[in-house]
Amino acid sequence: MKAMIFAAGLGTRLKPMTDTMPKALVPVGGRPLLQILLEKLARHGCTEAVINVHHFADMIEEWCASNDMGVSICFSDERAELLETGGGIRHAMPMLSGGRFLIHNVDILSNADLARFYAEGEGKAATLLVSERKTQRYLLFDETMRLVGWINEATGQVKSPYPDLQPDKCRRYAFSGIHQIDPVLMQIMAEELVRRFSSHNINKVITIESSGIAPAIMVGAILNVPVLFAKKTKPSTMQNMLVSEVYSFTKGRSYTVCVSAEYLTKEDNVLFIDDFLANGNAAKGILDLVNQAGATLKGMGFLVEKGFQEGGKHLRSMGVHVESLAIIDSLDDCKIKIIMESD
Question: Which of 5, 74, 199, 240 has its CA 20 to 30 A from that of 138?
Answer without folding.
Answer: 5
